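Suppose you are handed a protein chain with no further information: no name, no annotation, nothing but its sequence. What can you learn? This example shows the usual starting point.
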Amino acid sequence: MRVIRACKDLGIETVAVYSEADRNAMYLRLADYAVCIGPAPSAESYLNIPRIISAAEITDVQAIHPGCGFLAENAHFAEVCESSNIRFIGPPSKVIKLCGDKAQAIESAKACKIPTVPGSDGVVATPEEAVTAAKRIGYPVIIKAAAGGGGKGMRVVHNDMSLRNAFHLGQREAEAAFKDSSIYIEKYIEGARHIEVQILRDDDGSSVHLGLRDCSLQRRHQKLIEESPPPGLPRRISDAICKAALKLAQAVKYVNAGTVEFLVDKRGRFYFMEMNARLQVEHPVSEMVTGVDIVEQQLRIAAGDRLKLKQSRIDIEGVSIECRINAEDPENGFKPSPGKIKFYNPPGGPAIRLDTHVYCGYEVSPYYDPLIGKLIVHGKKRPEAINIMRRALDEFVIDGVATTIPLFRTIFGNTRFVEGGVDTGFLETVFGES
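A reasonable first move is to predict its three-dimensional structure. Written in structure tokens, the prediction is:
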């Protein structure tokens, strides 16, 4: 829906693809045309490249926007689009491949003299290789999927036995999510903040950043709350991180919108983690503080337009916070909560933005990610943004399925959160979640 809206604003016709499970999805009503590409399982629909390309060819599309998940960072899919004379709205396939290969991305960062997290020398193929790497790096370590993010395949382990047990689980999760079971090992930096930079770069090499986002509040490495700018981060560190992000983008010849992710430790030292070659779920907070429509910029860059934005004219105004509204039950181990929405009352008023596809009577599918909405607010200062979010959460009512709304109400009443004292272990240490 986000992409379709941007296309409509630019006068571009859209074709939406959907699985049988999404036959009643709201975005199909907004698109000019819709094509069913298969049954509910993602391997037979949203991950089925031949069917997607066939849908594009029969409707004579000029470009494909891959969204935020599924094939968004799949270099092969981008390559197939290129060979089919269809513009992939994202980086070239060779850049996606470089960014998606975490070992290559880390080597690129090192070549730019950007600090990196100690880790394995590329992919680890066996539990024995993983243990050898972990002993060299030092526990705790984190297992990561080489082909993607979103918390899929990630595991923090503290000893050899845990690592051996987690190794195959990580591989299976990575295979299911990305059709690639490759994993690698990194040092786990305890008490770190997850800070990322939104960048835009065109075919001619002009680039800008849209400031920083703090994505530290996570559960099992999946982001729950994002904020721009990061609270309490010194200007010198912010400037250094943004400079590093643009330097890396130039080095890898990045094109389109992307995100460069870092960890910042308790002493203010930052380390490159990865570069996401796609539109991030949390992009609205950057839009709110800069006034830049990131999806519109994606479309314009893909069409060959030069970037008209100038870094000197991009101001970060106020504070924006986003809560990911998931159909999950926080009181029951975040168990997914598919089902029919029986009552729906969205929040409203100034400074509130709600990106969602749900409505009263909508059936939340059990097949895909439980994200059903993104609640975004903007305030002149952080205390104002927090108060606006509290009001929005109080107004937001969804009955019929469990959601993360009650959890967010609790978090926004927590003193440590309000004071900006959040790191990647916040939920576990404060609320006992893991």
